[in-house]
Prior knowledge:
3 strands, three-stranded antiparallel β-sheet, mainly alpha, single chain
Amino acid sequence: MVIVRGVRPRRADRANQGSAAGHSGPPVRSGLSALSALSVLSAWSAWFMLASLAEHRYKHVSMTCYGLLMASQTGRSSAAQTVYSVTKELILSGELAAGTLISEGEIAERVRVSRTPVREAFLRLESEELLALHPKRGAVVVPVPPGEAADVLELRQALEQSAAERIVRDGLTADREGRLRELIAAQRERAEAGDVHGFAAADEAFHRGIVEASGNRLASRFYSTLGDRQRRMSVSALRPRPERLHVLADEHETLLGHLLAGAADTFGAALRAHLTATHGVPGRPGGDH
Length: 289
């Protein structure tokens, strides 16, 4: 008996059968792969868009927070500077006398700020030796240390004498002379009004103007560091003797005349007498103001 076995169609026949049925093996698999790739690509695109949006929002929020932080710090620094300026002026003008105890709350209420900028300003004034801080009590206005006035007067004499010699050698410009005359006129106005504080400020500006007129920038910078002490000394010396305001204005006029006449030595002698008459002789009774 002959057994007829089924014959498997050849590969080409299977392909033809698939084509006849409207289907093709490999094309079907290719279509599925393309669809899967498109889905993955769409998912990645969506994720990338979301990530970019999140990063943008993060950067925006970060920059906003940074801006608010900087604005807060700037505002606090500005408030601290205001407290510093106001408190320092109260000390230099003599309104807060040496030995006066002040509190953070008192100054905060006066300037209308919180206590934080007051604390920062007090620390700055302590570094300048104008205040001594006492925890839980406040701050005490530091008096002028013994001997400091004598040191200031010696430095002023040396710097202004040197400036006078340079001015005599190089000449005084019209602008500088005009500025010095304006300051003398301002002093006369303050003297007429009995304004010791205003006079002391104009007095310091006049003497500093002489050093600046010499053209020595280093001397000018150093002299400017004496300004606060100079004002404080002048207020202390002139408040009990307001009648000397007119005299000082006249003496400043004389000092300017010596510069214009080219008499540096005469200027030096007049300056020494001028300082001694106002502040006394350092180290002697009535001196070291």
